[in-house]
Design a protein that fits this description.
six-stranded mixed β-sheet; 3 domains; zinc; metal ion binding; about 20% strand; RsgA_GTPase_dom; globular; Rossmann fold; ribosome biogenesis; Small ribosomal subunit biogenesis GTPase RsgA; OB fold (Dihydrolipoamide Acetyltransferase, E2P); alpha/beta
């Protein structure tokens, strides 16, 4: 990123009219300072509302959120995690009538997960959130492991998590649900909703304030799009039925999209995720298991695996029964997954660097061959 002198031009970079529209999209003083520092004088700020293979749909004013502008990414091809994602703020320029993105402003937060497959790549789910609504539902989907994964990702990204248990009208045992939530081991807001009933989302209203950005994540069939429709007071988002045998839903939401609710909140609906692989989330693990992380500070070896090493502070806490055995096992599984992911990422980086080096060598050979042909004439 190159820096620009905000005082280089006498005209204001952002007019009062532009600022009003941007504020309704979540703009703030910190973003404006970054924009003035990093973006060139001939650009203007915009927010990414959706991403497709053909480009990035951006909005500069909340009034135009239903008709975003298609923009292309200019300049050098960025790493996949550095490319614009839904929720990002960017610097937009128009050249000969064609909008282009020249800069991605620094992110307040970015929810990452491991991309599908064995490539060892990260995927940016959404950016610049205040809250992450982790949506689950009464039935097969209400699962401790799934909740922990989303919580780890959210906490690692420094996004405030909110657990939303939907379809509360179904038959359920509240005692079992309370026990599951208690097993999480940390204080997290939990709200029960029924998106199809009047007043069924009233518990979510305190989060739906003007300029607040939030995303709904979870498996297919838990009712994310129905909840989003209720928040947006519209039926624009497609919804579908779930299989009664296993509660699985079809992917009615096919892409991530940013919308503005009548309350002024910015809502991002996301496709259902079959899995949420952990990525760069050791800080999230430490926050979800704070008592375990604190016990590891007493370990004799810095690279202690907390399995059978001498002088392990965590094993000592287990012996003293100050650490719960089940939470200890889940903590280890999270660390093992992150170690595997980090190894795959290192292999992927090594292969990429090798391809780049081969490409450089091929270019050098091509240039040398061209020079020999020139002198042979």
């Amino acid at each position: 990123m190159s820096e620009h002198d905000p005082a280089a031009t006498s005209a204001p970079r952002i007019t009062p009219e532009q600022r009003t529209g941007l504020l309704e999209l979540g703009w703030n003083d910190a973003l404006e300072a970054d924009f003035l520092r990093l973006a060139s004088p001939d650009t203007r700020p915009a927010r990414v509302a959706s991403v497709e293979r053909g480009g990035f749909f951006v909005v500069e004013d909340a009034a135009a959120i239903d008709a975003p502008t298609l923009a292309r990414l200019e300049g050098t091809e960025l790493d996949s995690t550095a490319q614009p994602a839904v929720g990002d703020w960017v610097a937009l320029i128009v050249r000969e009538g064609t909008p282009g993105i020249t800069e991605v402003l620094p992110r307040k937060s970015a929810l990452l997960r491991r991309a599908s497959g064995r490539q060892g790549r990260a995927q940016v789910v959404v950016c610049n959130l205040d809250y992450l609504f982790i949506v689950t539902a009464i039935g097969f989907n209400l699962n401790l492991s799934r909740l922990e994964r989303y919580l780890i990702g959210s906490l690692a990204a420094d996004i405030a998590p909110v657990i939303v248990i939907n379809k509360i009208d179904r038959v359920h045992d509240r005692t079992e649900i309370d026990a599951l939530i208690n097993d999480l081991g940390i204080e997290v807001p939990v709200h029960f909703t029924c998106a199809l009933e009047p007043g069924g989302i009233d518990q979510l209203k305190p989060y739906l304030t003007p300029g607040t950005s939030l995303a709904l994540v979870g498996s297919s069939g838990v009712g994310k799009s129905t909840l989003a429709n209720r928040i947006l007071q519209t039926d624009r988002l497609a919804t579908g039925e779930v299989r009664h045998t296993d509660d699985r839903g079809r992917h009615t939401t096919t892409r991530r999209e940013l919308w503005r609710a009548p309350s002024g909140a910015l809502i991002i609906d996301t496709p259902g995720m079959r899995e949420f692989g952990l990525w760069d989330a050791r800080e999230g693990v430490a926050k979800l298991f704070p008592e375990i992380h604190a016990a590891t500070e007493a370990c004799h070896f810095r690279d202690c695996a907390h399995v059978d090493e001498p002088g392990c502070g965590l094993l000592a806490a287990l012996d003293d029964e100050t650490i719960d055995e089940a939470r200890y096992q889940r903590y280890l599984r999270a660390l093992e997954e992150l170690a595997e992911t980090e190894a795959l990422a290192a292999e992927s980086t090594e292969r990429l660097n090798a391809r780049r080096e081969r490409g450089k060598q091929n270019k050098l050979r091509t240039r040398k061959g061209s020079r020999r042909k020139h002198w042979d004439r």
